[in-house]
Amino acid sequence: MTLGDDDEIPVTIVSGTLGAGKTTLVNHVLEKQTDHDVAVLVNDMGEVNVDARLVAGADDDVIELTNGCVCCRLKDDLATEVVRLAEERSFDCLLVEASGISEPLPIARTFLEEEAVSERYRLDTMVSVLDAYGFWKEFDPETERPNEDEERGSESGRELADVLVDQVEFCDVLLLNKCDLVPEDALENIESVVRELQPRAGLHRTTRSDIAPETVLDTGLFDFDAVRRSAGWKRRLAESHEHDDHDHGNGNAHGVTSFCYESERPFDPERFEAWMDEWPSGVYRAKGFFLLSTRPDTVMGLNRAGPSVTAGPIGQWRDDDDPATRLVFIGADVEEEAIRAQLDECLCTDEEMADVDAGESAVSDPFPRA
Ligand SMILES: Nc1nc2c(ncn2[C@@H]2O[C@H](COP(=O)(O)OP(=O)(O)OP(=O)(O)O)[C@@H](O)[C@H]2O)c(=O)[nH]1
């Protein structure tokens, strides 16, 4: 059955480099939109899809695709899931959040070329969330780099920059995010570089991806013919066909590796905070949630991307939850075994647990309260 234009569900694909602010944007849109019933599909590269939990209202409206990159390894899953979604429930917009290592073009192709998908969906808006702070450091040779950049390693930095160029080139709406961290003159420079790469897109400066939902939902902005005419698109389309054959779904794409630390035993707040202050080299992205001995009922969230760190309560564990720490670490040359051992050292000992249970613990809890 071929559906008419009006029946096709508009699709917004949100892409952007690791930690740029994609989940923040999705949450923002879900919170603020009133005109549309939005379904969300999130893809995360770790074995645990912490993004699904970090998206507000994650219960019913968020579909997860885990343990791979939606642009290659999970491509068939993506097609199957979105077709199933359209058959099972009615909604009037689909928001796809790609993992920070996904390239947007192969995802777009699923919506354009897979018949079962394209007869139900209409590719509507390609959104790129750009980490203006990261872009500033990557492209401005004058910039004095903070220590953490040296930790990232130049090779992976270069490869990530390639992905970034793709993301700037093929989008309809571009959020220049994290503007709070970048000085005005640098922002002007970035804007002019971005304009050269992509004169067609609507460019918006944002902090915490704060933008009106109608800027990214059902905009009608995606224009395949215009995009196809650009030389870059043809080249990338050819490359992305080749790219189908290789798998970068095991957390080793673009020189980036990841692992997930899990434990049902809570952290001692003082030791865990001290460990966070030290921070392991090579890790430039971390996210997920953790247990603290002092707050057994609270879901504590950790989100770190470059200089942005938040660690604090994000909710209460529910009855059907399985409380545990699940932290995903992403970076270049990440020393997984050493980090696991350090985190194990932060876990409460049996004695400390007994003190906490008996209400006799003298430990201080430096983390923020709700
Ligand atoms: N200072 C600052 N921090 C921000 C801004 N936007 C997002 N963040 C923080 O950056 C971190 C990463 O944001 P997310 O929305 O999780 O990023 P993401 O693109 O979904 O990350 P991945 O899915 O891992 O690629 C979080 O700690 C956010 O609170 C911003 O405009 N300014």
TrEMBL record:
InterPro entries on file: CobW-likC_sf (IPR036627), CobW-like_C (IPR011629), CobW/HypB/UreG_nucleotide-bd (IPR003495), P-loop_NTPase (IPR027417), Zn_Chap_cDPG_Synth (IPR051927)
SMART domains: CobW_C (SM00833)
Alphabetical list of SUPFAM superfamilies matching this protein: Hypothetical protein YjiA, C-terminal domain, P-loop containing nucleoside triphosphate hydrolases
A family per Pfam: cobW
CobW C-terminal domain residues: 256-347
Catalytic activities: GTP + H2O = GDP + phosphate + H(+)
Keywords from the named record: Chaperone, Hydrolase, Nucleotide-binding
Superkingdom: Archaea
Family stated for the protein in its record: Belongs to the SIMIBI class G3E GTPase family. ZNG1 subfamily.
Protein name: GTP-binding protein
Organism: Halogeometricum salsisoli
Lineage: Archaea, Methanobacteriati, Methanobacteriota, Stenosarchaea group, Halobacteria
